[in-house]
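Q: What residues go here?
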C-alpha cells in the first residue's frame, strides 16, 4: 500500500487530482499551489490529471494546506467543480 503522506518534506512530488473539468481547473490549481510559501514550483498536466510540485529545501508542506488551497482554486476556476487529492508520490530526479 502506498503510504499516505500528511507532510511533504523537500523534494518533487506528483499529485494525482480528481475533479479537474478543463485546463482552466489545472491552471487554477497550479496558480494557487505556487502561491504557497513552501512551494518552489507547481504545474499541472491536465491530460494526466496530475500536478507536479517542488517543495522548497528548507520547508515542509502539509497535505492539509494543499487540500485547503484546492477550495480557493475551485472558486478561482468558478466552474462548480470539486477537486481532491487522490494520491501523492515522491519523484526522484526530474
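A:
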Amino acid at each position: 500500500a502506498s503510504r499516505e503522506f500528511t507532510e511533504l518534506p523537500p523534494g518533487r512530488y506528483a499529485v494525482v487530482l480528481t475533479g479537474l473539468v478543463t485546463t482552466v481547473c489545472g491552471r487554477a490549481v497550479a496558480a494557487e499551489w505556487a502561491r504557497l510559501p513552501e512551494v518552489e514550483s507547481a504545474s499541472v498536466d491536465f491530460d494526466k490529471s496530475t500536478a507536479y510540485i517542488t517543495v522548497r529545501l528548507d520547508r515542509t508542506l502539509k497535505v492539509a494546506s494543499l487540500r485547503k488551497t484546492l477550495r480557493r482554486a475551485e472558486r478561482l476556476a468558478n466552474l462548480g467543480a470539486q477537486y481532491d487529492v487522490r494520491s501523492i508520490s515522491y519523484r526522484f530526479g526530474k
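A: Context that may help when evaluating the design: The beta strands are 7-8, 11-18, 39-45, 50-55, 61-62, 84-91. The chain has a mean pLDDT of 93.
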